[in-house]
Specification:
It is a single chain. This protein is of the alpha/beta class and 478 residues long. The chain contains 15 helices and 16 strands. Strands 4-3-2-1-5-8-9-10 form an eight-stranded mixed β-sheet. Strands 12-13-11-16 form a four-stranded antiparallel β-sheet. A two-stranded antiparallel sheet has the order 6-7. The chain starts with 12 loop residues before the first helix and ends in a 42-residue tail after the last strand.
Length: 478
């Protein structure tokens, strides 16, 4: 079968990633979360692709299966639990350890197993597995951005799947008999030049798509452990379990010399990314926002700078021209030094939060209201919380001065999933309220607040005086 996407000669890994991400977005081939850039895409048909695990003899004969925690592999986690196999899931970004063992309730129903296979279930029904655990993994399921029929794989550029496999190899959990499977959309199966694959890159034995099962017969060896020269001290500080593994290997007499930190902020485990392509770096290096767009975008920077200059007028003029009805301390700056500088920084950040996306949103966009935002919370902190709960919107409209934000999702189903994920969200010791925006509430949601009717002038909120949840929030960028 001919690949849908053709790769130009001389293309780098980041060229390939960008081409795949762009194609999926342009052809609307993904589900929430969107956009897919800098992610393992949650492609349409992921459930059907994961279902093909059951036809693999290697899966049926396995006892312990490790599946990555991304959304498109949720069905693979469910199938593993339903088959009563031991399921291991890596901790997100390896922050708190290597992986967790999912332990469903005794006699769990199919519905309970589905909950255990979700991101929330992974958190609630798991126990950590340490580096010293005697674990034998029979089959590994990973996500990919691109993969070839020969088993060459490209991830999202942060190297976590490669490191996870290397760490498992170091602890003796995997060996040459361990089968590696990836689950992707058909368009993600492309011809990857062999010269792009390095010694630390994980290769795969099977590729599952919504329409095919591809046995790769890959001859490239898989990582035999962590290649310490590919890492630096900064990476070790971010991933404490790597420091522990390094100490263990150093005690065993192995060479654990680290590599030098990269001169530019590029992906640690990737060497093929051109330095000039700053907009294609991973989000931890480009500081991409919740919608995946780069804050280095010149047009948005110019617009944000224009708004910043407007906010830098004398305090009296700013108070009269803002027109937000607050009349509060934002317009009354008595200390010209630190106070004014702080307000300028906050104003710039809020303006960037409001001018998020210039993309044309789907007609079915559904908006979620997020209220009770504490004073002093930064939009970047909210974005981080949304990412951690897998509730990243297509667009975020930040109105921190009014203690609220509006989150736009692609459709009602995506908004519903986000609402469930945002229940109980607490930031800076303040409980936030998440519910459908007023214009989209057909009635009370179960467990959700619908405290106020639809008057043209909303009454004051008990949480924030200006928290009127008026749906005429700032969407001038749409």
């Amino acid at each position: 079968m001919e690949p849908v996407l053709k790769i130009n000669p001389g293309a780098t890994k980041w060229d390939i990633r960008q081409k795949v991400w762009d194609y999926i977005e342009e052809n609307n081939l993904a589900n929430f979360p969107r956009p897919v850039h800098n992610r393992i895409p949650n492609f349409k048909g992921a459930i059907q692709a994961c279902d093909r695990l059951a036809v693999l003899q290697e899966f049926n004969s396995s006892q312990t299966v490790k599946v990555n925690p991304d959304r498109p592999q949720q069905q693979a986690r469910f199938i593993t639990l339903e088959a009563r196999k031991t399921l291991l899931v890596p901790t997100p970004r390896l922050r708190t350890g290597l992986f967790n063992k999912i332990t469903p309730p005794q006699g769990a129903t199919k519905e309970q197993l589905r909950i255990c296979s979700s991101s929330q279930g992974v958190k609630e029904f798991s126990v950590p597995v340490g580096l010293d655990a005697k674990v034998k993994v029979d089959l590994v399921v990973v996500g990919s951005v691109a993969v070839s029929e020969k088993g060459l794989r490209i991830g999202k550029g942060e190297g976590f799947a490669d490191m996870e496999y290397g760490m498992m190899a170091s602890m003796g959990a995997v060996n040459e008999s361990t089968v590696v499977v990836t689950v992707v959309h058909d368009c993600q199966v492309i011809d990857i030049p062999e010269e792009l694959i390095e010694s630390h890159d994980l290769t795969v034995d099977y590729v599952l798509t919504p329409t095919r099962v591809i046995k790769t017969n890959c001859q490239s060896p898989k990582p035999q452990g962590i290649i310490w020269t590919k890492l630096d001290t900064e990476k070790l500080e971010k991933i404490p379990i790597l420091k522990k593994l390094r100490a263990l290997e150093e005690q065993a007499g192995k060479d654990v010399t680290l590599g030098a930190a990269p001169a530019a902020a590029e992906p640690v485990l990737q060497s093929g990314q051109p330095k000039r392509q700053t907009s294609r770096r991973p989000r931890q290096n480009t500081q991409r926002d919740a919608e995946g767009e780069s804050k280095q975008d010149s047009k948005q920077d110019k617009r944000a700078e224009t708004e910043q200059r407007a906010r830098q007028r004398p305090a009296r003029v700013r108070k009269e021209s803002r027109g937000d009805g607050r009349g509060g301390s934002e317009g009354e700056i008595s200390e010209r030094g630190k106070s004014e500088r702080h307000m300028q920084e906050r104003s710039l950040e809020e303006s960037r939060g409001e001018v998020m996306s210039q993309r044309k949103l789907p007609q079915s966009v559904t908006t979620v209201y997020l209220g009770g935002i504490p004073a002093g919370l930064r939009v970047s902190e909210l974005k981080m919380a949304l990412r951690e709960r897998e509730a990243v919107p297509l667009r975020l409209t930040w109105q921190g001065a009014q203690h609220r934000a509006f989150l736009d999702y692609s459709d009602p189903q995506a908004a519903e999933q986000a609402l469930e994920a945002l229940q109980g969200l607490c930031l800076n010791d303040h409980n936030l309220q998440a519910e459908l925006a007023k214009s989209q509430r057909g009635g009370k949601r179960s467990g959700m607040s619908n405290r106020r009717p639809r008057p043209s002038t909303a009454p004051k909120s008990k949480i924030a005086p200006s928290d009127n949840k008026d749906d005429t929030h700032e969407k001038t960028e749409q």
